[in-house]
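Project channel, design review

CF: Before we commit to the Clostridium aciditolerans constructs, I'd like one complete example in the thread so the newer folks can see what an input/output pair looks like. Taking S-layer homology domain-containing protein.
RD: sounds good, go ahead.
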Amino acid sequence: MTSKKTYAIILTALISLSLVSPVYAQETNKISSITSASNTTTVSAISESNSKISKDEAKVIAKKILKDYFEFSIDDTKYQTNVNFTPDYQFGTNSKNYSWQINWNSHDQEKDVSVNVSVDAISGKVTNVDIMTSLRGQSPGIATLTEDQAKEVAVKFLNKINPQEFSQCKLIKNDSMSYGWKGDPTSYNFNYCRIVNSIPFSGNFLNVTVDSITGKIRSYGFRWSDYQLPSQDGVISQEKADQIFKDNLNLDLKYVPYRDEYGYDTKTKTTKVAYMPDMSSGVNIDAKEGKALDYNNTSPLDKKVTDLDENQKKSFIGSYKPVQKLDKELTSNAAETIMKSLIKEIYGDGYDIQATSYQDNNGIYGSVLACWSSHFTKKGANNDFADQGQITIDSSTGQLVSINRFNPVDKFGSNNDSSKPKITWEQAYSKSIDIVKKYFPDKVKDIDTKQTYIQRTEYYNNVPQFDRLYGFNFNRLVNGLSYQDDSISVNFNSSTGEIANIDSRWTQDLNAPSANGVISKSDAQNIFFNTYKPQLQYTLFNASKDPKNSELGVKLVYSVLDGLQYRQLNGIDAFKGKFIDYNGQEIDNNFEAFKSKIKGSPVEKELSILASLGIIDTKDFDLNKQITRADLVKILVNAKGYRPYMLEKSPDLKINYSGSKNDETYKYLQMAVSYGMLDNSGDFNANEKVTREEAIKALVKLLGYDKLAQSKGIFTLSYSDASDITPANTGYVAISKGLGLTNDTDNKFRPKNQITISDLAVNVYRALNSLRSNGY
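CF: and here is what came back for S-layer homology domain-containing protein:
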C-alpha cells in the first residue's frame, strides 16, 4: 500500500503553485446593533486611551461578525489572542485613522488556525477578515467548486453582509492574472468596485476570497466612504482622453526576458522583442485639465529627461576598456584587498572588512557569477546603528559588482535644512556617468545614458521637500534596443551628496533575436489601446501638501486601471502582435471561449477546474478530442506538478522518440520518467491514440499503486466486458474501480475504446479528489 507521503506529493505539487491573492485593501462592515451608523473618514490623530471603540468592544464586534457571517465561533480558552492598535495605512503613511487588529491563533495535532479581524477604532466597522486553516500533514485537495460556483457563494455572502453597498457594485476582472499556475488553486478572489453615476470609484470596493475546496469565505474586505464627489462639469471628451493616453503612455520597443515554462537554464538568457508600456508618465489623466498626474494623483507630472550631448556621448563610449580575466580566481585575501580599496575610493577611510564569503554560480546579478562578498563597518562601531554596508566583486576579474552602504541613523535630522539638497539631480546624473565609466568601462558601448526624472514635490510646514534619493538606472542596449533586466544602477543621497549604492546586473550569455520585421509602433498602439481603454473613474488622492497631515479627497480621472487600484499593463510581442506576460509568454485568452464550449457538458465542472489549474490546455479545445500518448503524458505530469528545474540534472531519454530534445513533448517525457510514470525504454509514438485501459493504467501508476496493481490472483472484476481487458491491466482497472475513478455505464468498462479528453478529465479529477476523501 502506498504511503501517505506518496499521495501528498501529488497534490502538494498543485498546492505549491499557489500564488495567494492577498487582500491589500482594508475594508468595512455594518453592525448596527453595536456601532454607530456614521462612517468617519478623517479624524484627529487618536490614541488607544481615547479611541471611541475600546479593545474589549472591538473583540466583541469581531466575534459577532465571525459568528453571524462566517459561521465561525471563537472560544478564547482555545486560542492565543493578540490585539494591536495601529494606523490604517489605507489612508496614507501618516494616517489619522486607527484600527484594532485582532488575531486569534490555534495550533494542535490536527490543524493550525489563524483568524485576523480589523475593526475601525472610530466607527467600529469591521474592515477586514482573514481566516486561514491548514491541516497538519495533509494536502487540502483539489477544488470542488468552479469559478462560477464560487462567484455564486461570494454574491450570496455580500448580499447578506452588505446588501445596500453591494447593489451599487460591479465585478472587476483583473486581467493581469491568467489561469493556471499564476492563480491560487485553493481559492477564487472577487473584486467588486463601487459605481457612482455610472463611473467606477476605485477607492470604494468589496473584496471576497472563496475557498475553492470547502466553499467557505476565506477573506473579506470592505472600503466604503462618503467623500464629496466632484461634478462631471468640464470633463474632457473620451476622444481627447484617448489621444492624450496615446501621446503620453509610450510603447518602447525593447528586449524582454523569455522564460520558457518547459525549460530551465540558469546560464543562457533567452529574450523576445516586445513593445512595452512606459508608465513613467503615469496611468491617470486629470479628467478636467487633461494632464498626466503623478503617482499620488495629486499634481500634474513634473518630468525631466536628460541625456549626454553628441560630444559627451563620444567621450563616454571612448572610455571603453575591456575587463581582463585573471589567470586564476581571487583568493579570499586578494579579494579583501580589492574590496578595501573600492570601499576607500567610494566611501573613504575608516572601514573594516568583516564576514567575507564566496558564492559560486550566483545568479542574483543577472548572470551566473562566482563572487566574493564582504560586510564592512565603520571602525569603532559597536551596535546595530553603525555606518555599514555590503560589497561584492567578480572573483574572476576583481570588477565591482555591487556596493551598498546603509546607516539606520537618519542623516535627514532636525539639524539639516531639508529644503536645500547638497546635490542637484543634474549634478548626480553627471557623477553617475563618471561612476559607470570608472567601474564598468567594458559596458559603456552598450549603455542607454538617457534618464527620466519625475519630481514628486511634498511640503512640510508649507516648505517644499526635496527627494531624499536620486536614482539612475542605465539599461543595457542590445542591437540598439534596451534590455530591461540588465542595467547599472547608481543612487545618491541628495542630503549629503554621497553615493548610496552601485549595482550591476549583466547577463554574460544573452540570446537576443534580430528585431527586423517587427510590427509598426502604430499597429502596436492600436492593439494595446483596443484592450486598455481609458475610462472615467473616481480616484482618491492626498489633498494635503503636508506629508505628515494627509487628507484624502476624490478626483475625476481618465484611467486604464478599469476600476482597479493596481493593474499590470502587459506588453506586446513585436512580431506576433499578441500580449505577453511577465515571463514573455503569450497570454492565454482562451478561457472564456473554453467555458462556452464546455457549458452544459456533463463534465463541465471537472474540465473547468482542471483547466483553471493549468492541467489541461484550453487552446483549440474539443470536448470529443481523442487523447494521444503525448497528451496523456502532459496531463498527468501537470497533475503531479511540472517542475522544469528538475530537468537540469535529468538524463537523456533512452526512449525511442522521433522529436527534438528541445521540444515540449521531450521535456514532458523526461519529467514523466523522473516521476516514475514512464519507463525510460522502448518506443514512444507521440501521436498514437490511447485506449481507456492504457489511460487508467498510467493514472493508477501516478497514484503510486503500481506494485499493488501487479499483484496476482487478488483482483476480480464484475464488468460484463472484463474479458476484453488485457490480463496484465486487470489490477490497474480494479484499483480504479475501487477508487471510483472511472465514469462507467451499463456495467461496461470498454477497455479498447479510445479515451477522450472529457473521460480523462473525470478520471484525473476523481483521482485527485479521492486523495482528500481518503484523508491524505
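RD: helpful, thanks. Residues 238-301+517-580 form one domain.
CF: DSSP finds 17 helices and 27 strands in the chain.
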